[in-house]
């Protein structure tokens, strides 16, 4: 987990959490004294330095004895190093005391090593204080460990600061972020990574906390929030109606902790200055996190490269994100290979995406295995898709079982689909629980479906909450249905917001109705847009006659919502937009919308189109649309056809349409049609 280095490489050891103390032993003194003798120098130069120091050491030079002992220790010659280090230590060289502790620890004498580290630490060696602190932590003496690690950290020792932050995090105490920052500022890549994770977690929570952040975000698969539901751009199922996409549900790839709902829903009611300030604070935290990820990634930290890629991808900087994903993937990070695959797929390069998914899946990434399964399912290769979904399941990704359920359901293998949905649902997959409930409901098992809907809804499935609303509404339990609709609407469910809006309209609460209808309309509901427009329309004062030379007024908000619904194919909205256009004198625009509505099956659209055509002299075409409207149950259209037949002298035809108009109504139409029928009857019998 840490920047695990050997003494031979850097002159210091560093320990990951709960690692061996020898790996944590860091000697800043040693590094200073042998500066320039690291891996950058060739063997000949090192041999020359060793010969010079050996000569001086043999003449009793304490400094040379310390450096020579360090050189031999670095080379692994413990027997050769020990006498020189002991001699230098006897002369009071603290670097030699620290390095003697390293040597003794390597030989299996931790207590004696600790004694020499204590001597060096008391003499001011930050590296020895760090090693001693790690020694005490391994033995469970946390107060002593904290004391020595704090001594090391306060002297500016990066490894001491990192180890202290690790101890404080373990104990849930404040100061974690402060010491991580201290270590990171000195180039400690693991500290930079963990500091970035802490900042990213705070950003996801919506803003800053106190400087002493006590706990850091995890680094496992789900800490990366690998989107356990469906990729919003994938072919995920619409479990409200039981429709299924051929590809299954994909985890889209890593996203920062606390990412929004997989379907991209947000609570549209959140607004105002405070959320805006919190959003700015969160953005600043995320910017800082990206800087620390970049620093750690530049030093070869592959998970930092992965997280940096995620942040860049979310910001639309796809090329740069791809470069960091590629860096991490080449270093063996399967999640980065998987994320790179999604990036390539979104760019239209499915073949290259499959290569990286294959690499990640072979390294045990269940998300990549699911992606391969979805890819093959979309190509109609069901057997290969099933194999990869099973591989995902074997890798511990519950989405594998869910996707197997989707695959079986798409092939009408209902029994097997139910089996896989159950397996995923029992493992805690909320959308699988919802899909299972839908399956049971379709089979007529209402009793068996409801508990699964409830389980899914309680686990956070927005669709399941909406489905429970439908279930209770079907039982005429409107109060409970509204509770579930409100719960789903609060999570951004468009159709649920529409149902809440309708319920509030019935209760006469126009303010709440408008708020929910706006949410639903903004989420793409044509019905909500129409109802919102109608609500706003009812509040408008009736327009007066325009004055001569008065400019045409701009479209009102209600007209804009009508048009939005009309463009989405809402027939009543299309008729209303046509009426508004006709009122403005724009016959061509009115005819366009009436015709669109009529061709989609709107009898009012057909009737109004007929009126428009009749006014323009196209009575023959008008009669065709009135006939279509009358046959669909439009009483006024039937009356118009009766009048038309009467004018043409087709009395029997006129009587037939009069009878139809009387039957269809409304009352005033039925009355007029009755009088016309009597007149036609008198004409026939005259």
From TrEMBL:
Biased composition (Low complexity): 204-222, 252-268
Annotated spans, Disordered: 1-20, 39-62, 203-277
Alphabetized InterPro entries for the sequence: Sel1-like (IPR006597), Sel1_AlgK (IPR050767), TPR-like_helical_dom_sf (IPR011990)
Amino acid composition bias (Basic and acidic residues), ranges on this chain: 50-61
SUPFAM superfamilies hit by this protein: HCP-like
PANTHER family: ERAD-ASSOCIATED E3 UBIQUITIN-PROTEIN LIGASE COMPONENT HRD3, SEL-1-LIKE PROTEIN
Protein's name in the database: Tetratricopeptide repeat protein
């Amino acid at each position: 987990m840490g920047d695990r280095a050997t003494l031979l490489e850097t002159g210091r050891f560093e320990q990951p959490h709960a690692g061996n103390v020898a790996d944590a032993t860091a000697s800043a003194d040693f590094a200073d004294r042998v500066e320039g003798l690291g891996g950058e120098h060739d063997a000949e130069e090192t041999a020359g330095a060793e010969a010079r120091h050996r000569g001086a050491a043999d003449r009793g030079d304490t400094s040379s004895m310390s450096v020579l002992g360090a050189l031999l220790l670095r080379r692994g010659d413990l027997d050769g190093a020990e006498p020189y280090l002991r001699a230098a230590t006897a002369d009071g060289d603290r670097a030699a005391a620290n390095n003697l502790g390293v040597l003794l620890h390597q030989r299996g004498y931790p207590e004696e090593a600790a004694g020499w580290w204590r001597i060096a630490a008391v003499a001011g060696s930050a590296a020895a204080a760090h090693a001693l602190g790690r020694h005490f932590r391994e033995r469970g003496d946390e107060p002593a460990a904290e004391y020595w690690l704090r001594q090391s950290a306060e002297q500016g020792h990066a490894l001491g600061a990192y180890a202290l932050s690790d101890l404080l995090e373990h104990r849930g105490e404040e100061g974690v972020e402060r010491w991580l920052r201290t270590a990171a500022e000195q180039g400690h890549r693991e500290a930079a990574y963990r500091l970035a994770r802490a900042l990213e977690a705070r950003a996801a929570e919506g803003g800053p906390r106190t400087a002493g952040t006590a706990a850091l975000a995890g680094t496992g698969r789900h800490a990366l929030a690998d989107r356990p539901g469906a990729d919003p751009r994938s072919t995920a199922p619409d479990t409200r109606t039981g429709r299924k996409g051929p590809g299954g549900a994909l985890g889209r790839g890593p996203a920062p902790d606390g990412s929004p709902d997989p379907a991209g829903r947000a609570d549209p009611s959140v607004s105002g200055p405070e959320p805006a300030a919190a959003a700015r604070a969160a953005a600043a935290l995320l910017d800082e996190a990206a800087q620390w990820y970049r620093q750690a990634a530049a030093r070869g930290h592959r998970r930092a490269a992965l997280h940096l890629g995620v942040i860049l991808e979310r910001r639309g900087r796809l090329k740069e994100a791809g470069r960091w994903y590629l860096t991490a993937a080449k270093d063996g990070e399967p999640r980065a290979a998987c994320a790179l695959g999604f990036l390539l797929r979104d760019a239209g390069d499915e073949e290259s995406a499959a290569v990286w998914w294959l690499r990640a899946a072979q390294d045990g990434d269940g998300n990549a295995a699911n992606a391969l399964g979805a890819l093959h399912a979309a190509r109609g290769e069901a057997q290969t898709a099933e194999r990869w979904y099973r591989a995902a399941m074997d890798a511990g990704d519950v989405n594998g079982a869910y996707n197997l359920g989707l695959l079986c359901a798409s092939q009408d293998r209902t029994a097997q689909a139910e089996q896989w949905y159950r397996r995923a649902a029992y493992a805690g997959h909320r959308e699988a629980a919802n899909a299972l409930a839908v399956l049971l409901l379709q089979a007529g098992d209402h009793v068996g479906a409801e508990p699964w809907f409830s389980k899914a809804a309680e686990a956070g499935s927005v669709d399941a909450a909406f489905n429970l609303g439908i279930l209770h509404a079907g039982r005429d339990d409107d109060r409970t249905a509204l509770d579930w609709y409100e719960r789903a609407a609060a999570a951004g469910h468009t159709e649920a917001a529409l149902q809440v809006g309708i319920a509030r309209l019935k209760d006469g609460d126009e303010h709440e109705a408008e708020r929910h209808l706006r949410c639903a309309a903004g989420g793409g509901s044509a019905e909500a847009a129409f109802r919102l427009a109608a609500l706003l329309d009812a509040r408008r004062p009736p327009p007066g006659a325009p004055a001569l030379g008065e400019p045409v007024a701009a479209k009102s908000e209600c007209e804009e919502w009508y048009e939005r619904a009309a463009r989405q194919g809402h027939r009543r909205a299309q008729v209303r937009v046509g009426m508004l256009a006709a009122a403005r004198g724009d016959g061509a625009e009115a005819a366009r919308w009436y015709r669109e509505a009529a061709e989609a099956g709107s009898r009012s659209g057909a009737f109004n189109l007929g009126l428009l055509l009749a006014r323009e002299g196209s009575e023959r075409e008008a009669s065709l649309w009135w006939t279509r409207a009358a046959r669909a149950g439009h009483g006024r259209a039937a009356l118009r056809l009766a009048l038309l037949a009467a004018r043409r002298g087709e009395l029997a035809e006129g009587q037939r349409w009069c009878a139809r108009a009387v039957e269809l109504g409304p009352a005033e139409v039925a009355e007029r049609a009755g009088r016309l029928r009597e007149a036609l009857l008198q004409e026939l019998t005259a």
